[in-house]
Amino acid sequence: MIKRSAKYILIFLLSSCSIDLFEQFSYRDIFLFYKGYISSFPSDTISKEVFDKYEYSFANVKIGRGAASTVVLAYIKDGVYEWRSNDGIKIYTYNGMIIETAGFVSDFKTDAFNILDASSQGTKFITHMAFKNPDLYRSKIENKIFKHKTHTALIDRLGGEINAEILTHSFSLPIIKWKATNQYYTYEGKVIRSEQYIHPNMPSVRMDFYLK
Amino acid sequence: MKSSSKLFTKVFLFLLFLSNSYSVKAEINDYIYPNQLPSFSNYGTIGLLNNPSARFLDEGSLGFAWNHMQPYLRGSLVAYPFNWFEASFQYTDINNQLYSEFQSFSGNQTFKDKSFDIKLKLMNETEVMPALALGFRDLAGTGIFSSEYLVASKRINNFDLTLGLGWGMLSGNDITNPLTRISDRFKVRKIVDGTKGGEFSVDSYFSGEMGVFGGIEWYLPYLNGARIKIEYDGIDYSKEGFPPVKQAKKINAGIVYPFSERLQLKLGLIRGNTLNFGFTYSANFSKKNSFIPKLDPHEPVENAEVLKMINTDNDEFLFKSSLKYLADRNLHVQAANVDHKSGELEIAYSQNKHASYVRATGRVARVLDDIAPYNINSFKLKNLNADQGMYQVVIDRSKLQRYEGKVIPKVHLSSLNVLPASHTFEDYQFQPTTRLPKYFYKIAPMVRSQIGGPDGFYFGNFRIAFKSETLITKNFTVDADFSYGVTDNMGELKLASDSILPHVRTEIVQYLKQGRGFTVDSFQANYFSSIGNDIYTKISAGYFEQMFGGVGGEVLYRPFYKPWAIGAELWRVKQRDFDGSFNFIDYQTTTGFINFFYEHPGSQILFKLKGGRFLAKDSGVNLDFSRRFKSGLNMGVYFSLTDISREEFGEGSFDKGFYFFIPIETFFSNYSSGHTGFGLRPVQRDGAAVLYHSYDLFGITDQASYDHILRDWDDLYD
Predict the structure, then answer these.
(1) What are phi and psi of B320, to 5 degrees?
(2) What radius of gyration do chain B's Cα atoms show?
(3) What are phi and psi for residue B546, nearest 5 degrees?
(4) What is the 3-state secondary structure of B577-631?
């Protein structure tokens, strides 16, 4: 939404007078900028060569329709993976589910649970979630996870395609009447991609995991 | 009487309960009532529906509002240079009145009105007290919406209550004006006949009838910040605009739905008989990188340890690697020195990528830290612009490393390591070979616009522009801008100049009509030099702008450690032909000014005073106040007073306007140094007209200021 706003302002300024919008940007920049809004900014395609270049595990993160960026695995503790970007953002995941963030305009923290645990599928259960900016103290969320055998998707992966199973996680935060549905793409028993809503003021966050 | 007192007590206790419960649940309420920014009124400023309120957006906010409410269609631009100051420009189409009674002049076009509004916050809201504001509508326009008001707003839980007193057009619900007891001048509101518009009618402020107005903004839970507005309309429809405008009811009601924090949609029923629709967009541009986060970090040099080793015994290798690795990051080495005795590496560089001079300095230092051998203890970095030394910073290498990821505290800075910079190439051991002349160009779209004249609301000419710069030497440049019109509707323009002054600006219609094809927009040669410490000069000749060409120059004294500067400029110019060719027409003149600048370092308010002779041979002063924010956003207002009468000046009475500039990098995830902006002058007349020329010295020496380096110091590790 932030970047869509920028488009409106640019249109306004472009149609106003006395501007030098193209002072620093070429036609190509402007074209790509507008293309990004029309069809969403593309994710970085991770080829086998790019994958091999990385010394450590990494993930590709795309927030809403914005441009993708990379976070690198900093450490693993008790099954929690800490991913760091070069501009100081930290994302903590547990079995492919984002359970905490730090460094975004609005951050969140939720109870860690195993999204892949078959016993929790199809049943409702309660966990907790908290937000920062604006602050919302630990509040109850109602979760439901379900998986359909036929619910699969072809995903580009290191130059090839793989058929991933999809886990759907619906949740609601009754105190602020916020509901959302996350999706986790699994392959060979691991989450390789998550599309998760982590804060009511943010669009969904997509993470593609490349573990080494 | 007793029962009303009991009722009052109950209401008071209830309101007290509500206000306390709100503060306890503030955090949850931020989610239940998101997007709580105040909304706009139909008059284009923050308020209820027709009534104003005492609410403001944060400083550094800019807003656009569009409203349709018969008989008005209004577009507004709103700016907040301070938390306590709202300034707005309104452009209103009034469709119950023709532009003029002469069909041959303006056809069936309806009346257009331009006006300025301001609002000042007198008191912040507290737990008990409401916010209080004083405002003026149509402050210096034709006066058909002219009104003053004093208004209070108090938020209680999810209700925002507003109550106010209005004068002028806001006196619809008449009560006795208490100011009439102070002076008779407040008894009758003066209407100045024969006004050209644009005058401040100070004598009429707060005079005549006074009325009350008020209303409530009711925030609805779980609806993305939607709110219902109900108000007791304060407008006096027997006076406003062009009566009669029928009012069936005094109560107006509407709903505002925010799609996001910035974009709001509004629907209302006004006067009991008129549907009202509008939208507003506002955003805060004041904070660094607040709009789009930057994904343009410093890229460390690969194989840094190897380079350090290679560069240890060979200064030329060090110079060449500095040249390469800085150029890869759009930082251009102009000269270098290595002093092994003191362990200092000195680099003179120029750059055009970073709007923040300190960020550029930091990037240079970090690249040098990657590649310089370990016996180098400090970096002396000199910034050049137009081949003139602007500033230099001496950075201790160990401190640079120690504070990496933080910021070298300002306490470590002093006049010892942030210095003015004179520059001569003879002082340097190493200089890159530059093949001159060097030629840069770009092709870009361009729109020429004419908005709001009697001929029609909008005239535009879409053009393709070719812009080039040739470096003859490093301080002698030739800029050439040409453009070609692709499509336009300028042919329908017909308004001729009615000015009794030399037509230095009012022949704009001729320039727009005759310059629809190929035009030479500017062709300017510039020679820059420095004739002493802190003294900068520029000599220019050629076609400076669309309407004038000639020869002239500028000199500026800008002491590095002072917040002020003083300069002079003198130009001999001739008016260019309307067709944008290389030809001139007969009018020629000499124009020149003494310029004084003062910038308050804390508030970053810049005051510019320009006194001298203008293009139409009138003499006087131009005053310009602007404020710069951390992001680089700049907002300003200006006005001019010259030795011509209001009658000679014509519509608008005197020259005035406002502008804002936003750094282009605000909209992108990469850093860049350009900016885009919007300037608005209600009416362009010939009086107080100045020559436009590229590269004014105050602008190109912006970094030659100790305060500006300290201002951006937080950007060192960006």
Answers:
(1) -70, -35
(2) 29
(3) -60, -35
(4) CCCCCCCEEEEEEEEEEEEEEEEECCCCEEEEEEEEECCCCCEEEEEEEEEECCC
pTM of the model: 0.82
CB contact under 8 A, A5 and B263: yes
- Chain B residues touching A202 at Cβ < 8 A: none
Model pLDDT for residues B221-232, shown as the tens digit of each residue: 999 999 999 999
Alpha helices, DSSP H only, in B406-481? none
Q: Which CATH number fits domain B33-284: 3.40.50.720, 3.40.50.300, 3.30.1330.10, 2.40.160.40?
A: 2.40.160.40
pLDDT tens track for A163-176: 899 999 999 999 99
Residue of A nearest to B665 (CA): A24
Q: Give B178→chain A minimum CA distance, Å.
A: 45
Which among B31, B291, B295 has CB closest to A2? B291
Query: What residues in chain A have their Cβ under 8 A from chain B's Cβ atoms?
Result: 1-3, 5-6, 8-10, 12-27, 29, 33, 67, 69, 86-87, 131, 134-137, 175-178, 200-201
Give domain limits for chain B: 1-29, 33-284, 304-434, 439-473+475-707
Q: Give CA angle at B330 (B327, B331), nearest 5°.
A: 70
Q: Which of A1, A24, A135 to mutate to test the interface with B (most CBs of B within 10 A)?
A: A24
Amino acid, res. B25:
K
Give me the count of residues in chain B: 718
Q: What pLDDT score does B291 carry?
A: 72
Task: Based on DSSP, count helices (H) and strands (E) in chain B, helices before strands.
Answer: 11, 31
Nearest Cα of chain A lies from the Cα of B295 at a distance, in angstroms, of 8
Q: Domain boundaries in chain A?
A: 2-15+24-39, 48-210
- For an interface test with B, the pick among A13, A22, A108 (most B C-beta atoms closer than 10 Å) comes out as A22
Fold of the CATH domain A48-210: YmcC-like fold (2.40.360)
- CA–CA dist B110, B107 (Å, integer): 9
| Cβ within 8 Å, pair B668-A18 | no
Answer whether A18 sits within 8 Å of B445, measured CB to CB.
Answer: no
Q: Count CA atoms closer than 13 A to B131's CA, side-chain side.
A: 22
- Write out the CATH class of domain B304-434: alpha beta
pLDDT the model gives residue B689: 94
Determine the pLDDT at residue A64: 85
**A58: closest CA among A71, A74, A69, A77?**
A71
